[in-house]
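Pipeline run #58 for the internal structure catalog. This entry was flagged by the ingest filter as a single-chain record with no existing model, so it goes straight to prediction. Upstream metadata was stripped on purpose; only the residue string is passed forward. Reviewer on rotation: M.T. Logging verbosity set to normal.
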Amino acid sequence: MTAPAEGIVALPPARNRKRPFPQTDTSRGLALVSPTLVYALIFLVVPILLVLANSFWTQHYLTIDRTFTLDNYRTALTDPIYRDLLLRSLWVSLLVSFFTVTLAYPIAYFISFKGGRHKGLWLFLITIPFWTSYLLRVMSWKVILGYNGVLNSILMGLGITSEPSTALLYNTTAVVITLTHAWATFAVLPIFVSLEKIDRTLLEAATDLGDGPLRSFRRITLPLSMPGIVSAVMIVMIPTVGDYVTPQLVGGKDGVMIASAIQAQFGRAANWPLGAALSVTTMAIVTAMAALVVFSLRGIARRMR
């Protein structure tokens, strides 16, 4: 073996070079997710832990007693006002999820099976409402629901009233209608993705074996698209429970939801521990309800096959 030429430093064999970090699949994966993990810990986990800690304390005017207590949770679960608001919020979120998915599924089905080479254009068109702000869309629905043209024309023709009718405004129905429109696109996209993953040869085989369109849809398309339906329900149901803007603008007194009560405790009522307890209680109940809905939908899908 010849010695290296003068002035040239010989490098050790490549296998003997020490790397600063172990280059395994696990280490590379941890290195990739660590920034996101740190971000989630700082801006998601830490605030939730602070809210949880506050829920066990007591507010005394401008001071907080940090003695452990469950009185806030007792108030949140037994007070008729908060209990009714929470039940109304859960009921509204279920209604909005049902109507949104019911309206979104045919749209996603049409785009996936009938859209052809224009699928991208159809997906682009359904995002047009998001070109305007959420507040502007809610205010538009306030105008639409506040002036029921047909009903108003009938009442004015009979001479009963000369003012625009607000029969569809300031109630739970107005909240459900507005939220259904606001979250429709969020339900279309996951259902569309799920429908796109269905192997079309399965439908052809079902047709060859004598299944009609409705039977093949019930036995193949609907069960295989259930993951998209579950995702759509979760995307719609969880945020709508805590919606604050829509009930304030179109719900009125009859459409108030639990988010308004939580905001009041952190605002003018100045009872942060009670507001934290209401928040934690809502999160826990929504989590349990979401798990129940997921298992129920999966059970329905298994029975359809």
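catalog note: The chain has a mean pLDDT of 84.
catalog note: The chain is about 70% helix and 0% strand.
status: ready for reviewer M.T.
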